[in-house]
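haha ok so turns out i had the wrong file open the whole time. this is the CORRECT one, sorry everyone. sequence first:
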Amino acid sequence: MYTAILQVIIGLILSSFALAGPLAGQGTWETTLHGRDMDGNAKNGFEAYYDSSLNITWLKDAGGLNSTASWDDAQAWVSNLNIAGVSGWRLPAYLGTGGPNYNFQGGSNAGYRPNPVTSELAHLYYITLGNAGYPSSGYGVKNTAEFDNIASYYYWLNDSYGRSEAWLFSTEGGNQGTDRKVLKFYAWAVHAGDVGTPYASAVPEPSSLALFAAGLGLMMTVSRRKKVKS
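then structure:
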């Protein structure tokens, strides 16, 4: 009996993980997120994604410190972050005005289903990824696009509220608000503007072009000889 119950629990856990991933047709991510190479090595994939809607670059790895941290520790980590020589990273910004106006019917700067324009992370969650907020059906971070390690939990935003609190956003239910800076939540690094290099802009090295030209010439010579013999 206990074995059967355990199998059911494991199945539910695995199915919940299986729901998260890139979902084609949901949100705007397929047209507004653009892969960026940070380390010059195309073989290991993109390290960041430029968000053309917000004009910022998101680090592909949303895990940040690989653990939760206080707001001050998260700020210290992101301010010292250097990705392949690129510094100047920060936490996602709160874009609203005034203090938290909790409205659990949605549309405000705090509470469930906040207005997506009030923070960069809310915009990513609701508009770019097209996820639903609590209590809507299917709420939660189901679409992760090509990002890695998006935790279903709270993430710090870059802005303080008073001396002891800071703004934060939950990818678990899509809610937003403020809480004490000493609490421990996740951190996700972003950078203003477009940083990194798209693979499509890479130009073949001169040696590669010469090799290609030599191969093409050889093929044309062989083709001519076959025509003469025939």
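The helical segments are 2-19, 29-32, 71-79, 120-128, 206-229.
again sry for the mixup
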